Amino acid sequence: MDADELRLDGNAAAGLLRELFVHEMTVSVGTCANCRAATKVGALHVYRNAPGLVMRCPVCGAVMLRVVHGGDRYWVETVGLRLLEIPETPPPSSP
C-alpha cells in the first residue's frame, strides 16, 4: 500500500479527539507551522497505522498533530500546529 491508500481525512480522528476535548474538534481550524495554511481539523490527512494518529497538513504534507493513547494517558504533540482555533459553539446544522 502507498501513502495515498492509507490516508484518511481528519474526521477519522473525531472519536479520539472527542475523548480529549470538550468541543467538536473537526470544525476547529488549525494553522500549519510549516506553510501557514489554515485548515479545518476535519480536512487534515490522518494516518492511523502508526502508534496513535498522525495528522498532516493537506497543503504541504507536514505533520501538524500526533496523538497516542496508551494505558491511562494520552500524549499529544502539536509542534507542527502554529495555532488552533476552537469555536465555542458548534456551527449550525444544515436543514
Summarize the entry for a quick read:
The chain is mainly β and 95 residues long.
Word description of this protein:
By secondary structure, the protein is mostly beta strands. 12% of the residues lie in helices and 40% in strands. It is built from 2 helices and 8 strands. The protein has a 5-stranded antiparallel β-sheet. The protein has a 3-stranded antiparallel β-sheet with strand order 3-2-8, with no helix packed on it.
List keywords for this structure.
five-stranded antiparallel sheet, 2 helices, 95 residues, 8 strands, mainly beta, three-stranded antiparallel sheet, single chain, globular
Low-confidence stretches: none
Instruction: Give a short account of the largest sheet.
Output: 5 strands, antiparallel
**What is the residue-averaged pLDDT?**
88
Radius of gyration: 13 Å
Helix percent band: 10-25%
Strand-residue fraction? 35-45%
Q: Tell me the overall shape.
A: globular
How do the strands line up in the largest sheet? 1-4-5-6-7
Order of helices and strands: HEHEEEEEEE
Number of strands: 8
What is the distance, rounded to the nearest whole angstrom, between the alpha carbons of the first and last residues?
39 Å
Structure class: mainly beta
Tally of DSSP helical segments: 2
